[in-house]
């Protein structure tokens, strides 16, 4: 019985660490958020953080998973219009948390190495995102000359590229540009039925 209570406390502490790290990185930025500061917010030592996550990279990967959990963009529960609006809402939200955008961008480059702790996360996340986008363009009314999977890759590539442009120049209107791109990619028949 004690093991269950101990396990539950460990899970709760891990969640507390993730929520605190999300907040600190969102406010201070990826480069300005130290393990020491995150640990202080939670009331543990940096060594305790590594006890729960193994490494700084594993902590940051778990932070991105937690961020995705908060965003809640799942294809099984969203219709085509809700999926597009949900995707644009995530992009709008990203403009409020530049530290998390920087973390995502930095880790995505590092995760190109198959041995990096975030490699599988980025593969899985990309597949989920493309699946959501492809599904929103797969109905008869939404069909374009491009197949939905190709279209999803183009939208994902544009979104990732816009994030980089926005990090360099915060005046870039990420949600506006993505909305215009998605609108341009929708066939005329789908636009008249909205």
Automatic annotation (TrEMBL):
InterPro entries: Homeodomain-like_sf (IPR009057), HTH_TetR (IPR001647), Tet_transcr_reg_TetR-rel_C_sf (IPR036271). It comes from Microbacterium luteolum (Aureobacterium luteolum). Gene3D superfamilies: Tetracycline Repressor, domain 2. Keywords: DNA-binding, Transcription, Transcription regulation. Residues 34-53 bind DNA. Residues 11-71 form the HTH tetR-type domain. It comes from the Bacteria. The lineage of its organism: Bacteria, Bacillati, Actinomycetota, Actinomycetes, Micrococcales. The keyword Iron-sulfur does not apply. PROSITE patterns: HTH_TETR_2. This is TetR/AcrR family transcriptional regulator.
């Amino acid at each position: 019985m004690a093991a269950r209570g101990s396990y539950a406390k460990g899970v709760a502490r891990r969640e507390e660490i993730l929520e605190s790290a999300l907040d600190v990185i969102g406010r201070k930025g990826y480069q300005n958020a130290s393990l020491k500061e995150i640990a202080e917010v939670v009331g543990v030592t940096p060594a305790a953080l590594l006890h729960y996550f193994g490494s700084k990279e594993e902590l940051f990967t778990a932070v991105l998973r937690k961020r995705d959990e908060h965003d809640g963009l799942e294809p099984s529960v969203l219709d085509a219009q809700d999926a597009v609006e949900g995707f644009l809402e995530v992009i709008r939200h990203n403009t409020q948390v530049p530290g998390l955008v920087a973390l995502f961008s930095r880790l995505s480059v590092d995760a190109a190495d198959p041995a990096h702790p975030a490699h599988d996360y980025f593969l899985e996340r990309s597949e989920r995102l493309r699946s959501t986008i492809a599904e929103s363009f797969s109905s008869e009314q939404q069909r374009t000359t491009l197949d939905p999977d190709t279209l999803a890759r183009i939208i994902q590539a544009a979104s990732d590229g816009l994030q980089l442009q926005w990090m360099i120049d915060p005046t870039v209107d990420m949600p506006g540009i993505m909305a215009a791109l998605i609108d341009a990619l929708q066939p005329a028949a789908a636009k008249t039925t909205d």
